[in-house]
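User: Fold this one for me? It's Endonuclease.
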Amino acid sequence: MPATSPRHRRWTSVALTTAALLAGLTAPALTAAPAAATTTAYDDTYYAAALGKTGPALKTALHGIISNQTKLSYSAVWDALKVTDQDPANSNNVKLLYSGISRSKSLNGGNTGNWNREHVWAQSHGDFGTSAGPGTDLHHLRAEDVQVNSTRGNKDFDNGGSSFTNSGGSLTDSNSFEPRDAVKGDVARMILYMAVRYEGDDGRPDLEANDSINGSVPYHGRLSVLKQWNDEDPPDAAEQRRNDVIHSSYQGNRNPFIDHPEWVESIW
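Assistant: Here's what I get for Endonuclease.
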């Protein structure tokens, strides 16, 4: 059965809740359906060693596949993001992750009104700084407004909070950050990519997603919410294009959860 769209799931949720209330019943807690199984052009080649596996075996196989990676310098990330995060509606601009703002590619820097390099897996949650490898991995580095980037800081991801300047629908509170609906799944798949790619076998911390807020190195949360976002916001054309560009033009590796979002549930 094909996966339902987020819009359809929201309509169904409202309809069921309304019916329950009219009948004098307590409305059930509804969640998005798990991601449907997918097939890609890479299954018989790139992902051949992972097919048919589940759980820890699948995670180990994917780690072996995606670790074959070309590493960029941190300065090279600037130009790469101008390609990977290009606004589909305006080739002169980048589309900022959390705010959704379209901003000129030339306005990269550290001042108000600029965009800079956001580490979706917060640097302090991995103790990797801007070193080549996890600190420069395009699969979790995104273009973002300088002030919005500062607002997010190193907070874990969770539901709830209040709006802020240039939020674009994203929310924040004292210890967590909720990205706008259109990129919640993107954020989830970036965090979970990092948890598979960096397993501590290259002199770096063994990154892992957990279900805590403000966990210590090397953890990032909240896993239960990230899994929900992966189901609610499946990969769209822009996210798939970005994965293709990183694979073909920069790092030579892919984010497997963009190609196979159902593998999130299989592993976690």
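One thing worth pointing out: The CA atoms of residues 138 and 246 lie 7 Å apart.
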